[in-house]
């Protein structure tokens, strides 16, 4: 258990005898100021592995075969042997207060002795396969997770995480907790602490990355609750009828959106349909340079039971790995709790991107079918927009019209009237985009009705006069602001 007052956000716990003895030697040799990156229990503890290791060393030095020395201590020598097995027990800690010796480089680990490199975790000199400057930790610019990187090109400078070798120059993201880190022969269990999930740590990390590294991190948790394959799920991005969308990262530092859905007899058709649509659109977008930047793309599909077959007795989960990951959507532009302060030129540029995405769909005879602010993603701090969520998308041949679908699909306040009243075509998307354009440019929806006024039945139809009046006012407002409304309207 970590000390209650600790502000360490991560720790490296020795997990094999070599690492435990190295930690013991480090703690024995370190002066009090140098122990700032270490935690040890107040008293030494007996470790059988340490005892056997030391007895093995004695045997090698004596050059005689003393087999009794490698067995459990007998009663005559028990006290002496136990004393030989006593070591300092604890772990290495990573803090932002104090910072590493050189923040731009991060937290370094090695034997030291290399000119110009002040090592944060100085390992014992007796370790044969540890280099002077062996590895370093720092924060990943895209994910905010800590990464470990090998800093020596020597063949003997071995470094691995969860059994995967870390190559020179590679930033291996520590996106899960715990993970097994091996530095040479030293094994450690890497863990994020409880402090790594606090607002205080998030603020300190952001300041550290902006001031020391010159980068603004994507806000992600350091202590994730769930993994799906190699992907660690962090921030929730949205929720739909069939699943929840979150951001996720892997050990390479890649950031994606992951849509986790129930895969059962009830949902299998819709899930498979969405996969087929995404696959087809991805193929179409690959043909022309630039088109693939208009839509979210399917990178991979992961099945909980490693098979594309749902369970007939219960349900499995399936994860769609999607890229790029949008950290915000058009819904955030007008949200009272998370309002993006974009000026009109930026909003117009983002809307233009969305229209280009819609034009791509319509050019290839596809209807999106559920356009709304939450289904248009914002990338790179407001420099680009992409279309999301193709669960309602339909392919439509030229001249073909789809039959009306009262009460099915879409989102009430963005549905075109003809979707409820008559056969329809791709123009339903144009209607939805017009409503979205008004909302993001003027800061409010042109009408906000609890029910769909175009559905049959008196309680729906009584809302039509209210809608007609709101529609008239919206058109007047657009015409009154010719410097905003018309240029944007003419983009499509």
Automatic annotation (TrEMBL):
Subcellular location: Preautophagosomal structure membrane
UniProt cross-references to Gene3D superfamilies, sorted A to Z: Phosphorylase Kinase, domain 1 (3.30.200.20), Transferase(Phosphotransferase) domain 1 (1.10.510.10)
Main location: membrane
EC number(s) recorded for this UniProt protein: 2.7.11.1
GO biological process: autophagosome assembly; regulation of autophagy
Membrane topology classification: Peripheral membrane protein
Superkingdom of origin organism: Eukaryota
Name of protein: non-specific serine/threonine protein kinase
Species this protein is from: Arthroderma otae (strain ATCC MYA-4605 / CBS 113480) (Microsporum canis)
């Amino acid at each position: 258990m970590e000390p209650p007052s600790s502000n360490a956000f991560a720790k490296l716990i020795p997990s094999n005898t070599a690492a435990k003895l190295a930690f013991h030697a480090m703690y024995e040799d370190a002066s009090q100021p140098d122990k700032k990156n270490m935690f040890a229990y107040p008293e030494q503890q007996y470790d059988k592995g340490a005892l056997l290791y030391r007895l093995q060393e004695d045997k090698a030095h004596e050059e005689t075969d003393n087999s009794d020395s490698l067995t459990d201590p007998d009663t005559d020598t028990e006290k002496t042997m136990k004393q030989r097995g006593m070591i300092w027990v604890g772990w290495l800690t990573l803090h932002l207060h104090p910072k590493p010796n050189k923040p731009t480089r991060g937290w370094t680990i090695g034997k030291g002795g290399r000119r110009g490199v002040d090592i944060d975790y100085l390992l014992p000199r007796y370790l044969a396969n540890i280099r002077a400057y062996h590895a370093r930790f720092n924060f990943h610019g895209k994910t905010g997770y800590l990464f470990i990187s090998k800093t020596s090109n020597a063949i003997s400078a071995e470094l691995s995480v969860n059994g995967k070798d870390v190559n020179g120059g590679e930033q291996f993201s520590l996106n899960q907790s715990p993970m097994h880190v091996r530095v040479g022969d030293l094994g450690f269990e890497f863990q994020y602490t409880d402090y790594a999930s606090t607002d205080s740590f998030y603020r300190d990390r952001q300041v550290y990355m902006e001031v020391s590294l010159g980068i603004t991190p994507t806000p992600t948790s350091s202590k994730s609750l769930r993994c799906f394959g190699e992907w660690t799920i962090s921030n929730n991005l949205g929720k739909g009828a069939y699943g929840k969308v979150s951001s996720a990262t892997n050990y390479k530092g890649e950031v994606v959106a992951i849509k986790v859905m129930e895969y059962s007899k009830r949902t299998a058709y819709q899930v498979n349909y969405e996969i087929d649509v995404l696959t087809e659109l991805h193929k179409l977008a690959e043909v022309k340079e630039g088109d693939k930047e208009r839509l979210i793309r399917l990178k991979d599909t992961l099945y909980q039971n490693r098979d594309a077959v749902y369970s007939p007795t219960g349900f499995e989960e399936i994860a769609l790995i999607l890229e790029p990951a949008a950290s915000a959507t058009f819904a955030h532009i007008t949200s009272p709790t998370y309002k993006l302060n974009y000026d009109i030129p930026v909003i117009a540029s983002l809307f233009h991107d969305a229209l280009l995405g819609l034009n791509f769909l319509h050019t290839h005879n596809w209807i999106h079918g559920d356009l709304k602010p939450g289904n248009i993603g914002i990338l790179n701090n407001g420099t680009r927009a992409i279309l999301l969520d193709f669960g309602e998308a339909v392919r439509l041949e030229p001249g073909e019209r789809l039959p009306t679908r009262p009460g099915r699909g879409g989102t009430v306040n963005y549905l075109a009237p003809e979707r409820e009243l008559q056969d329809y075509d791709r123009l339903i998307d144009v209607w939805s985009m017009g409503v979205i354009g008004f909302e993001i440019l003027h800061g409010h929806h042109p009408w906000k009705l609890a029910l769909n006024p175009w559905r049959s039945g008196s309680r729906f139809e009584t809302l039509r006069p209210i809608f007609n009046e709101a529609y008239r006012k919206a058109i007047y407002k657009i015409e009154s602001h010719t410097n905003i409304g018309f240029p944007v309207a003419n983009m499509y």
